[in-house]
UniProtKB/TrEMBL annotation:
Record's keyword terms, sorted: Acyltransferase, Membrane, Transferase, Transmembrane, Transmembrane helix
Name of the protein in question: Palmitoyltransferase
InterPro entries: Palmitoyltrfase_DHHC, PFA4/ZDH16/20/ERF2-like
Record's keyword annotation contains Amino-acid biosynthesis: no
UniProt domain comment: The DHHC domain is required for palmitoyltransferase activity.
GO molecular function per UniProt: protein-cysteine S-palmitoyltransferase activity
Location within or outside the cell: Membrane
Recorded catalytic activity of this chain's protein: L-cysteinyl-[protein] + hexadecanoyl-CoA = S-hexadecanoyl-L-cysteinyl-[protein] + CoA
EC number: 2.3.1.225
Top-level taxon in the UniProt lineage: Eukaryota
Keyword Coiled coil tagged: no
An annotated GO cellular component: membrane
Lineage: Eukaryota, Metazoa, Chordata, Craniata, Vertebrata
Amino acid sequence: QLLINPVHRCRDVEHGRGLAGAGTNCLQAEQRIPISKDVITSSSASAMWFIRDVCGIVCAVITWLLVLYAEFVVLFVMLLPSKNLTYSIVNGTLFNTLAFLALASHLRAMCTDPGAVPKGNATKEYIESLQLKPGQVVYKCPKCCSIKPDRAHHCSVCKRCIRKMDHHCPWVNNCVGENNQKYFVLFTMYIALISLHALLMVVFHFLYCFEDDWTKCSSFSPPATVILLILLCFEGLLFLIFTSVMFGTQVHSICTDETGIEQLKKEERRWAKKTKWMNMRAVFGHPFSLLWFSPFSTPDHGKAETYQYVV
């Protein structure tokens, strides 16, 4: 259930006929107008979603190239030249599985509608069809001319209002919002895991090469091997720290049911408070299962839910 915070900008407010033009309406007592979620759900929610932003596309491509570089070093520098077949099979299977899940989560986070409100639906004809009573108002975004539910914010990159928008992430070339937060959390988690796994393998490989002949521990020359391993170590350490912090902040945001923008703006809490477990289930689906960790499982965000506007 979402509630709109009163915004003291009457130009963003459509009033009921009886009180149209009265500036004091913005401060009147709260009333609720139940409106179906279909009204504020974009028709692109079930279609392919892709943001045509040059910076975001470049960052997304870099993300894939970095994962593929790690894949190359792990396979061709460390695992294939290894004499221990069991070690190579176990670590190769684990690393490739985590890398596949990370890239799948990245694709889902990038190509899923984050919760965009239909653009341009705040027309005079449509608002009149809502049959607002005197004193009732709905808020609209002056930038994309859409009916703006509570906890929705306008993204200047996506050029849309996004429900429960947390932030816009260039690495996934998309906003993190109500519909794709699960995939973003999984992406940060799997990247952190493969970064940690790669770092551990680099340490073991260095120890192995120091004890053995460097010419035998890799199919590349010793200088090339060292350079490749150092670059992977640097990449793994950097992204382990970055994605671990992002994962922690996202889980905290979900548990407290407060988005990053809401925390930054210190917005007044006007929605029902729920337990941490209920908040987790609202994002990942319910009941708890292994599907929580699958980027191929679409969580149920409550399609029958009715949004309410405070007026």
